[in-house]
Amino acid sequence: MPDMIDSIEALEALYGVPNDASTVKEVPVITPEYRAMIEASPFAALATSGPEGLDCSPRGDRPGELVRVADERTLLMPDRRGNNRIDSLRNILRDPRVGLMFLIPGHGNALRVNGRARVSASPALLESFAVEGRAPRSVIVIAVESVYFQCARAVIRARLWEAGAQVAPGSLPTPGRILASLSEGKVGGEPYDSGWAARAKETMW
């Protein structure tokens, strides 16, 4: 492709220098203001890297329990029930660098956290995250290195919190349909879709 940018110098010449508001917001600790945002968030994307490549995993939980602020430099994220691929955890064991992006429904700004993670199976820690008598199998312990908010432009452009921007039910392929297509009908299909709500209820925590 023509006109590809292949140097930092060319990139900086194109974009210029970030203003003070873009740089002063980044700090190495969780400030009271950033803590309030973390504790209000029920959703985050967790980015990790490993020998097999990159992974970005959606994480959702009750506000305040999605990620617990242990102190100004430490976050605790329970690994709730999922598909058991454990891609994020595999990556963390080989490369501890992680990135988090928190979203808060109705709030324009996102919050970003970068740091290094470990995986804990401490019984006391797991039990502290139990919901309805079910504890997670592990907790991701994140040593914070940088925290900053992302301005609302992307959320505004996406109309993320506007009801009128929501897709119509049934307008996209269902998980069962996707699985059936990829497996020549061996996995998924209508039974997968019709049984999902009951399965999710049983395995939510």
Question: Could you walk me through the main structural features you see in this protein, from its secondary elements to its overall organization?
Answer:
There is one protein chain. The protein has 205 residues and is of the alpha+beta class. It folds into two domains: 16-158, Roll (Pnp Oxidase, Chain A); 167-203, no CATH class. The protein is built from eight helices and seven strands. It has helices spanning 8-15, 20-23, 32-40, 87-94, 123-128, 153-158, 175-182, 190-203, and strands at 43-50, 53-60, 68-71, 74-78, 97-103, 110-120, 139-150. Strands 2-1-5-6-7-4-3 form a seven-stranded antiparallel β-sheet, covered by helices on one side. A hairpin with a 6-residue loop joins β5 (97-103) and β6. The longest helix has 14 residues, at 190-203. The protein is globular. InterPro entries: Pyridox_Oxase_FMN-dep, Pyridox_Oxase_N, Split_barrel_FMN-bd. Pfam families: PNPOx_N (PF01243). This is Pyridoxamine 5'-phosphate oxidase N-terminal domain-containing protein. Residues 30-151 form the Pyridoxamine 5'-phosphate oxidase N-terminal domain.
Give a brief rundown of this model.
This protein has helices spanning 8-15, 20-23, 32-40, 87-94, 123-128, 153-158, 175-182, 190-203; strands spanning 43-50, 53-60, 68-71, 74-78, 97-103, 110-120, 139-150. The mean pLDDT is 95. The chain is built from eight helices and seven strands, in the order H-H-H-E-E-E-E-H-E-E-H-E-H-H-H.
- Report the portion of residues in β strands: 25-35%
Task: Quickly give the structural class.
Answer: alpha+beta
Q: What's the CATH architecture name of the largest domain?
A: Roll
- The CATH topology label of the largest domain is Pnp Oxidase, Chain A
> Low-confidence segments, ≥5 residues, pLDDT <50?
none
CATH class annotation of the largest domain? Mainly Beta
Helix percentage range: 25-40%
The number of distinct structural domains comes to 2
Count every helix, treating DSSP H or I runs of 4 or more residues as helices: 8
| End-to-end gap | 48 Å
CATH superfamily of the largest domain: Electron Transport, Fmn-binding Protein, Chain A
Computed CA radius of gyration, to the nearest angstrom: 20 Å
Strand line-up across the major sheet: 2-1-5-6-7-4-3
Q: Outline, from the CA principal axes? A: globular
Reported for the largest beta sheet, the result is:
7 strands, antiparallel
Q: Average the pLDDT over all residues and give the rounded result.
A: 95
Which quaternary structure do these chains form? Answer: single chain
Tell me the total number of β-strands.
7
Which series of helices and strands comes N to C? Answer: HHHEEEEHEEHEHHH
